[in-house]
Each structure stands twice: as C-alpha cells, then as structure tokens.
Design brief:
The protein has helices at residues 22-33, 86-95, and strands spanning 14-19, 36-41, 44-48, 54-59, 79-83, 99-105, 109-113, 119-124. By secondary structure, it is of the alpha/beta class. The protein is globular, with a radius of gyration of 16 Å.
Length: 125
C-alpha cells in the first residue's frame, strides 16, 4: 500500500452473478429478498432493495456452476444473508428453488445453492 496516496472514495455498488438463466435467477433473488427489478436488459437484470443495495445478474450462456465443496469449478464468491429465523428462512429459500448443501452449516448458518448453483449462506443475526 502506498502511504503517500490518499484513499479515494470507493463504495460497494452491485454484486453481480453470472447465470445461464437470467430471468430465473433474478426472480429467485427478487422473491428471496423482496427486491424489485430496476433494470431489465437482454443480458442483464438489476434488483434493488429498499436499503439501496443492488444485485445484478449477467447472462453467461456457458455458465458452469461451482462444484463446491469440490474445487473442480471453484465457488469464487458466496453471499451471506442475515436472517432472524434460520429454519423458516431456509425452507422459504428452498421453496423458491434453492438446494440445501448436506453436511454444510451449523446451528448458526445454513449453506444453500441458488438455482444457478452459486453457494450462499443464511446466517442468524
């Protein structure tokens, strides 16, 4: 790190996930989080929450889902969501198409895969 340079303003804007099912993945996260579509293009959909956070989905026709916990195709990223009721939230995510990762998690978090295979965790507050 260079001490003589001042840090410019850098802020998180959007988390973007690749998918071969653009509409399906955007619908999954929109319903999971209660967020609305704010941009819908042929190869890109953006959701925004009431708190201003954004999540986007980029069309990747040759998308290969991560094979976590195997490293054949590394996960590269996962998202933690804080929840007030772990089991209720996990069942809701599963009703939307998520799959629970057997043998992963604990009494304070559950690991799931979204419909495009990206791992995410539901974590107790």
């Amino acid at each position: 790190m260079t001490a003589e340079l001042d840090r410019p303003t850098v802020a998180m804007d959007t988390i973007v996930l690749d998918t071969d099912d653009l509409s399906g993945l955007a619908t999954f996260y929109g319903e999971l989080l209660g967020w609305k579509v704010v941009a819908n293009e042929e190869d890109w959909i953006t959701l925004r929450g009431d708190n201003g956070m954004k999540m986007a989905f980029q069309l990747a026709p040759n998308h290969r889902p991560p094979t976590w916990p195997s490293n054949e195709v590394p996960q590269q990223l996962h998202i933690d969501f804080h929840v007030s009721d772990l089991e209720e939230s996990a069942r809701f995510a599963e009703s939307l198409g998520a799959q629970r990762v057997k043998g992963a998690g604990s009494s304070t978090f559950v690991v799931l895969l979204d419909p495009s295979g990206h791992p995410f965790c539901l974590c107790l507050d």
